[in-house]
Amino acid sequence: MANPSAVLADISDFDRDKMNHVKVTEKLVLPNSEQLKSERKETQLRSEIEQGLQLNHVAKVEEKVVLPDASVIAQEKQEHELHEGIKGRPKLNHVDVEVRNSLPGAEAIAQEKQEHELHEGIKRRPKLNHVDVEVRNSLPGAEAIAQEKQELQLRTYLLTTDGGRRRRE
Questions:
Q1: 35-68: per-residue pLDDT in tens?
Q2: One of this protein's GO BP terms (predicted)?
Q3: For the chain, give me the number of helices (H) and strands (E)?
Q4: How far apart are CA 75 and CA 68, in angstroms?
Q5: Dihedral sign, CA of 142, 148, 151, 153?
Q6: Which residues have CB under 8 Å from 76's CB, separation 6+?
Q7: In angstroms, rounded to a whole number, what is the distance separating the alpha carbons of residues 5 and 147?
Q8: How far does Cα 58 stand from its chain's mean position?
Q9: What's the whole-number mean pLDDT along residues 125-136?
Q10: CA-CA distance, 109 to 105, in Å (whole number)?
């Protein structure tokens, strides 16, 4: 708590003239019709609860009994027979299961040994160095192109003239 003498000293130094005047307006908001209805309903419910709720008594309630038809009776009878059949079933005997591990024959062992040796041989093979392969396409020279042109001209001449003679048309 604060020291009472310090509080009195602060109050005595207070000047009321330094304060600004503030006009206070009170706003009274009236409830609308929905709020009035909900409040009335709430007060009515509270009064009913306090006074005790009056229940309307119903005369006599008649219970209707619906009998099943033939299909429902047949289905129930079938289910009953099925349950009785399950109950009357003989119990099964306990059996101990033996696990038998058959060993491979001599041929299978020899084949597996051969495959193993092949794999080991592949693993022991020396590693090869990587080589970049460069493919070069050499183009024919000017003489070879000239010779091919002459051969092509000679072939076309021979085909069109029938062995050096002109065809008669």
A1: 999 999 999 888 887 787 666 677 777 788 888 8
A2: actin filament organization
A3: 5, 0
A4: 11
A5: negative
A6: 68
A7: 129
A8: 56
A9: 79
A10: 6
